[in-house]
Amino acid sequence: MSTMKLSAAILALTLAFLPMPAMTALDATEMLADPALEARARALAKDVRCVVCQNQSIDDSGADLARDLRRSLRARLLAGDSDEEALAYLTQRYGDYVLMDPPLKPATWILWFAPAGFAAIALLLGLRYFRRRE
Amino acid sequence: MRRLLFLVPLAVFAVLAAWLYLGLGGDPSRIPSPLVGQTVPTFAVDGLATADLEGPALVNIFASWCVPCRAEHPLLTHLAAEESIVIYGIAYKDKPEAARAFLAELGNPYRKVGFDEDGQAGIEWGVTGVPETFALDARGVVVFKHTGPLTPETIRHDLLPALAR
User: Fold this and answer.
1) Contact A95 B119 (CB under 8 A)
2) Chain A residues near residue B19 by CB distance under 8 angstroms
3) A51 — contact with chain B (CB < 8 Å)?
4) pLDDT digits (tens, 9 = 90+) for B74-108
């Protein structure tokens, strides 16, 4: 086999095993005509959790409910909602759970600050321990 | 006393471990509904709209294609017939013919049925799947939500007390 053929075969094999890029579940019929609005809808959809598949955003998920949520998100943007208003529309119905990033508020302080708190405690205890050994 | 101080981290760990262990037992598909404590969402589908709902009542989201809905149906029939509870139905993402056939076969416990073919009313209600049941009080405020099929236990322990409150 010539080197040329060999490298072509290797290239083909490599390409075949290349991971697929993250694809959207969005199909063309859902897209908005206005590209700027569509770009906002895509960006927002990545922050909205698909409540039935839970670890996927509605942008990734092929679930029926995810498609419905994408559609209503686009309808909100078409109606003139800001990004915040469109997300608020969903959180009023599905709760904060529908956001991929839990919002910072008193109920989530433990979630956001506990890791740093534990690290600080560990650091303090460690410092004390080593200082005492000296 | 100071000698026992080394037990503090162990105690903290034990409490945390117990708390996290309890967290494992929860059902992640049960998402708390922000609608509880709010008035009924604004929606209008073929056959049913917000103004039709008169509490105290139940709003049951069902579909003919949903197997657990079939399982919970006798309980709804019982609630409507024996406990004289008003139930409104919303057929979620279902063809009206199919939903009508479902009710013709199993009996219709609903005062009124709305046909939400495209699932838009479902989004207004924050529906994640069928069946789901909401309880409304006399002012039209949602006082309880149950995700999944009702069981005699949920009805006795959660649903009826919520309606009576």
Assistant:
1) no
2) none
3) yes
4) 999 999 999 999 999 999 999 999 999 999 999 99
Chain B: closest CA distance from residue A24 (Å) = 21
- Phi then psi for A58, rounded to 5 degrees? -70, -15
d(CA B165, CA A70): 37
Domain spans, chain B:
34-164
Shortest alpha-carbon distance between residue A13 and chain B (Å): 41
CA distance A94 to chain B (A): 5
Do A99 and A83 form a contact (C-beta atoms < 8 A)? no
Question: Nearest-CA neighbor of A30 among A84, A88, A75, A81?
Answer: A75
Whether ipTM exceeds 0.90 = no
The angle at the Cα of B88, spanning B87 to B93, to the nearest 5 degrees, equals 135
Segment A92-133, tens digit of pLDDT: 999 888 999 888 888 889 889 999 999 999 999 999 999 988
Cβ B87 vs Cβ B80: under 8 Å = yes
CATH of domain B34-164: 3.40.30.10
Strand partners, B39: B141
CA B104 to chain centre: 23
Q: Is residue B131 a contact partner of residue B68, using CB atoms and an 8 Å limit?
A: yes
CA distance B33 to B31: 6
Any CB–CB contact under 8 A between A46 and chain B?
Answer: no
- Kindly list the residues from chain A whose CB atom is less than 8 angstroms away from the CB atom of residue B35: 93
The CA distance from A24 to A58, in Å, is 9
Q: What is the pTM of this model?
A: 0.78
What CATH class is the domain A25-103?
mainly alpha
Residue B38: partners with Cβ closer than 8 Å, 6 or more residues away: B141, B142
